[in-house]
Amino acid sequence: MLVFCLSILVLIVVTEALTEIVVKSKIFNGVRVFFTEGTSWFSRFVGGLLTCGHCFSLWAAVMLVGATLYIDIDFFSAAKNPVIWIIFTLFIHRMSNYLHFAVDRLDKFYK
Description:
The protein is built from five helices and no strands. It has helices spanning 2-24, 29-36, 41-51, 53-71, 82-110. α1 packs across α4, α2 (29-36) runs antiparallel to α3 (41-51) and α3 (41-51) crosses α4.
């Protein structure tokens, strides 16, 4: 049960991290512009997903949960699986961002 709860926590954080990277980062800016300036219904649909955090996070969660179910991931015994590396990399990255945010707030408080 603990492994399941930790897996859910990891998937929540990774979904949020992936959503922020795709919806807000400069890396995906060209992709977002390409789709939002398109004229077809498909371009407008994809552009809407890539610019709306709530919209994208739903599909990111579906993709991540689907991948974990399809691959039958046990997070702690499947370390050689590339999907696990990507998920944990995003998880660690997001946790480090929260830590940086907290440290920055403390620095401002004590200055």
